[in-house]
Write a structure and sequence with these properties.
The structure holds 2 protein chains of 2 kinds. Chain A is α+β, with helices and mostly antiparallel strands. Chain A has 2 helices and 2 strands. In chain A, strand 1 (14-17) and strand 2 form a beta hairpin. Helix content of chain B is 64%, strand content 0%. The termini of chain B are far apart. The chains are: A alpha+beta, B mainly alpha.
């Protein structure tokens, strides 16, 4: 079994694509951030859905 | 006992009080209602960033009080040191996602340019603060980073003022000067957000604004 300490203290894996070089760990973090960003756009926000979003942005249109 | 009210602006306390009362519109400092268009997870990254920053500062205060020997040798110290690092990682992740969101919303619209600028400067300042944190670990990692960084810093001519091999200077910058600057910038950023409101989507108008 590989412990977290052993995994993190090992040599970093790097990916090469032409002049681009990035560590696997950094690539995974960036992909996770992109995934979280997309999920934030598409997932519904919990709470009161009575108020409707209107382009006019009336002052009583609050949540 | 009777008191007399000095006319506004007649002394500096009254002038300051008067000025502070206009910094944020009444009821907008800690609002309990938000425009309906904010009912989206995309608006959560900013406050998530702020929550991470609070933990960064709190864990940093604990590390500063307990000292380097504690965070190197004690298991609790190791844990707090690790949470300090990972809260910084979360701080930067949330800050970058907040930046993506605000960039695609063109959040500088509607007289919000200073809000955008203070956020951008705080981002750059945070990178410097994190860098001095790496140099303040007092271990072989910080020693390696400082010797690698010195050539880059010297090549741009700021080595005499910003000596990455001077651990004392880096530590004091990390725990006093830079957190103070970041704190002021973040505070100003939040005041500006409360003052001008959160930027609305392109097809909406913020409450109190006109097209």
């Amino acid at each position: 079994m590989i412990s977290a300490g052993g995994l993190l203290s090992g040599h970093a894996h790097f990916l090469h694509w032409g002049v681009v070089q990035i560590s696997l760990a950094n690539l995974i973090v960036i992909l996770v951030m992109v995934a979280v960003f997309v999920l934030a756009l598409v997932l519904p926000f919990p709470g009161n859905h009575d108020a409707e979003v209107t382009p006019s942005g009336d002052t009583d249109d609050h949540v | 006992m009777t008191t007399s009210k000095a006319p506004s602006g007649s002394n500096w306390t009254a002038a300051t009080r008067e000025r502070l009362s206009h910094v944020v519109p009444p009821g907008q400092l800690l609002p309990d209602r938000q425009p309906a268009y904010m009912r989206s997870w995309i608006y959560v990254f900013g406050v998530a960033c702020l929550a991470a920053l609070f933990y960064v500062i709190a864990s940093g205060v604990v590390l500063a009080v307990m000292g380097a020997a504690w965070w190197h040798s004690s298991s609790v110290g190791h844990f707090v040191n690790s949470t300090h690092l990972w809260s910084v990682e979360l701080f930067f992740m949330f800050m970058v996602m907040h930046l993506w969101a605000k960039f695609f919303m063109a959040a500088w619209r509607g007289r919000r340019a200073l809000t955008w600028i203070t956020g951008g400067v705080a981002f750059i300042g945070s990178i410097g603060t994190a860098f001095t944190g790496y140099l303040s670990q007092s271990n072989f990692d910080s020693q390696w980073i400082s010797t690698q960084a010195k050539d880059g810093v010297n090549s741009v001519g700021v080595g005499p003022e910003f000596n990455v091999l001077n651990t004392g200077q880096m530590l004091l910058l990390h725990i006093s000067v830079l957190p103070l600057l970041i704190g002021l910038l973040v505070g100003l950023h939040i005041i500006l957000v409360r003052r001008h409101g959160v930027v609305p989507p392109f097809d909406a108008v913020a409450p109190g604004e006109s097209r």
